[in-house]
Amino acid sequence: MDALTLRPAQNHDFERILAINEAGSPGVSPLTPAELAVICASESHCHVAEREREVLGYVITYTDMDSYEGEEFNWFKHNFAHFLYIDQIAIVPATRSSGVGAQVYRFLEQRAREQALTSLVCEVNLEPLNPVSLTFHTRQHFVEIETLATLDGRTVSLRRKELS
């Protein structure tokens, strides 16, 4: 089996990303084609996880130096510096629990270190509850630092993983 790669998303990946996004609901916020095009306009924000030329997942990230209007991102930006924010990650349902997500996070840690960032940060839904993501992030050594009631009616666990 070929190794998993993480590469910048390209226009021909959009249909697959949108299908994975829809399958990941309510764990990830829905994306429209127009929103995805804006996010992917900067190749540093959206990446796909690919094996044997099949897209198995995607991840959307921002650094503390980026401008982004996300409520959770802005909480992190006001409270921390030098971080890589994981806005969304979604994996094809049939390949969940196969290690794809963990491999993506290893890529993200490497990328963060290369950019001299000191932590990875993210949020996980508590309401509506996302127990799979909570378990995954705990296994990846993310620690809850705060809970936040969002303007869209969710409650999220704000999590951080310090990089050594």
Portion of residues within helices: 25-40%
Overall structural domain count: 1
Looking at CATH, the homologous superfamily is Gcn5-related N-acetyltransferase (GNAT)
Structural class by SSE content: alpha+beta
Q: Kindly report the spatial arrangement of strands forming the biggest sheet.
A: 1-2-3-4-5-7-6
Shape: globular
- How many H/I helical runs? 5
CATH topology-level name:
Aminopeptidase
**Architecture (CATH level 2) name:** 3-Layer(aba) Sandwich
The ordered H/E elements are: EHHEEHEHEHEE
Could you give the distance between the termini?
Answer: 31 Å
Average the pLDDT over all residues and give the rounded result: 94
Number-wise, the strands total 7
Rounded to an integer, what's the Rg over CA atoms?
15 Å
Proportion in β-strands: 25-35%
Unreliable residue runs: none
Biggest sheet record: 7 strands, mixed
CATH class: Alpha Beta
